[in-house]
Design brief:
The chain has 382 residues and is α/β, with parallel strands linked by helices. It is 30% helix and 20% strand. About 2% of the residues have low confidence.
Length: 382
């Protein structure tokens, strides 16, 4: 029997909603064991102790436990990436480009040993011959016509890709053209993989929609998305990952607060219309990137920006837990339910009423194991 932990008398946001009563949450390395009304498990909640049944008991009074957060757009670098994510409560990261395949396999092995954030990845992204991202990728990533789409997707699947990433650009900006993007999407769908399209401009956004991409990451700066694009996102069941933390950094670097205000309005319009919006940051430490975004800490900023855009705190938390788990086919996480993976974040206060409470980290558990937190667990605010 593995060691158990019981957090007692705690407020619970279960990935969907706040439970109405203080609860006791019991878990171990095998997953969440039970979620029961406070006191029904018969353990003292006076302090962190070991009860008669061998469980470590943690007093959750005044705190909220929520599912470990999921960042829907990161860039892996090394094990430190996964350590930083987990230290700030982001227990799963959804990578958007890592190569070569040997590096990705090595990181999967390291993550599988425990104590770090888990992740999923597309491996190498598909990209056009002359777009602004072409200087970052090897020649194998460059796709110049529809006839290359099947081979590209097959190669990524052979390397273990969890989904396919395509970098779309406005027509004429050096990215793959619409027939090529469409062929890539079709090839991915034939083998049961979803497609995430980089779409940082309005024209690229339209191309990704026209090609049938499942998720569109980034939100254009400047003029808000037009109503027809918003309508299509809802009608065609597309998902937005706006990466507001990144877009804020780019806009502020160019002294363009008005452009960022337009991006916030786009996210608000998508959410109000009923489109799914996920929390992703584009966390990266890439030399030459538009702006570097810190792993882990930036996800707390992303949640705040989603609230600024018009989501409620509960909506924002769903965007970093259950909604992202559903979108990326991760049924074992994103919610606090018996039998699910025990990725948990314990924070002081109530983030369903004040989103900044996610910054007040008391404890992080990855697959039931408590992490040794960084010396500063309160992310800096902009």
């Amino acid at each position: 029997m593995t060691a158990r932990t019981r957090i007692t008398g705690v407020r619970v946001f279960d990935g969907e909603d706040s439970l109405p009563l203080p609860m006791d949450v019991t878990f171990d390395a095998g997953g969440i064991v039970s979620v029961t009304p406070a006191g029904s498990a018969g353990a003292s909640a006076a302090a962190t102790v070991v009860d008669g049944g061998g469980a470590t008991v943690v007093d959750g009074g005044g705190a909220t436990v929520l599912p470990g957060l999921i960042d829907a757009h990161i860039h892996l670098h090394d094990a430190d990436t996964l350590r930083q994510l987990a230290g700030f409560g982001a227990t799963t990261g959804l990578d958007m480009a890592t190569w070569p395949a040997e590096k990705l396999a090595g990181l999967r092995d390291i993550a599988g040993r425990g104590g770090l954030a888990d992740f999923r990845s597309p491996g190498l992204p598909a990209i056009g011959p002359a777009g602004p991202h072409s200087r970052f990728v090897p020649a194998e990533a460059v796709i110049t016509g529809p006839d290359q789409a099947g081979r590209f997707v097959d190669a990524r699947i052979a390397e273990g890709a969890d989904y396919i990433k395509i970098v779309t650009e406005a027509p004429g900006d050096g990215g793959p053209d619409l027939p090529t993007v469409t062929a890539l999407v079709d090839a991915a769908h034939r083998v049961g993989r979803k497609v995430i399209a980089h779409a940082a401009t309005a024209a690229a956004f339209t191309m990704a929609l026209d090609a049938g991409a499942d998720m569109l990451t980034h939100i254009p700066l400047g003029r808000p998305l037009d109503p027809d694009t918003v309508r299509r996102m809802v009608a065609e069941d597309r998902i937005a990952i706006p990466t507001l933390a990144l877009m804020e950094g780019i806009a502020f670097a160019h002294n363009s607060r008005e452009a960022f205000a337009g991006a916030l309005r786009s996210v608000g319009a998508l959410h109000s219309a009923g489109a799914a919006v996920l929390a992703g940051t584009d966390a990266n430490a890439e030399p030459g990137a538009h702006t570097q975004v810190a792993h882990g800490t930036s996800l707390h900023r992303e949640l705040e920006l989603l609230v600024d855009a018009g989501l409620t705190p509960t909506d924002a938390l769903r965007a970093a837990t259950s909604r992202t788990a559903d979108a990326f086919d991760l049924p074992d996480r994103g919610r606090i339910r018996p039998g699910l993976r025990a990725d948990l974040l314990l924070v002081d206060g109530d983030p369903t009423s004040t989103i900044t409470a996610t910054r007040c980290i008391r404890a992080v558990y990855v697959a039931g194991t408590p992490l040794r937190l960084p010396s500063t667990t309160t992310p800096e605010r902009r």
